[in-house]
Amino acid sequence: MNFRSMDEFWGFYMSQHSKPWTRRWHFVGTLLSLVTLLYALCFNWWVLSLVPVIGYGFAWYSHFFVERNVPATFGHPVWSLLCDYKMFGLMLTGGMDKEIKRLGKRPVLQTY
């Protein structure tokens, strides 16, 4: 599916993260991957290879076993990464519930 804007993709992305535990697993993966990135940059460059393994590992687990769908990153890797950081920021600042309510009031594109 082609998306015309980041906002349009965001609605789809959030529809693929509808369960709270999916979002929580993403949060943990993003947090640990950022900590690993910081460690790699400061102490050991070899650890850098673990950053995507950690981040995607937690996220993909949540898609396969919690949400039971295919990760959006398979079809839209860049937009998915940007949306993951947006979701992380909203969760970190407590704005995720408000965003879920906002998105619930508009149609979400479906993929078949």
Automatic annotation (TrEMBL):
<protein>
    <recommendedName>
        <fullName>DUF962 domain-containing protein</fullName>
    </recommendedName>
</protein>
<keyword id="KW-0472">Membrane</keyword>
<dbReference type="Pfam" id="PF06127">
    <property type="entry name" value="Mpo1-like"/>
</dbReference>
<feature type="transmembrane region" description="Helical">
    <location>
        <begin position="25"/>
        <end position="58"/>
    </location>
</feature>
<keyword id="KW-1133">Transmembrane helix</keyword>
<dbReference type="InterPro" id="IPR009305">
    <property type="entry name" value="Mpo1-like"/>
</dbReference>
<keyword id="KW-0812">Transmembrane</keyword>
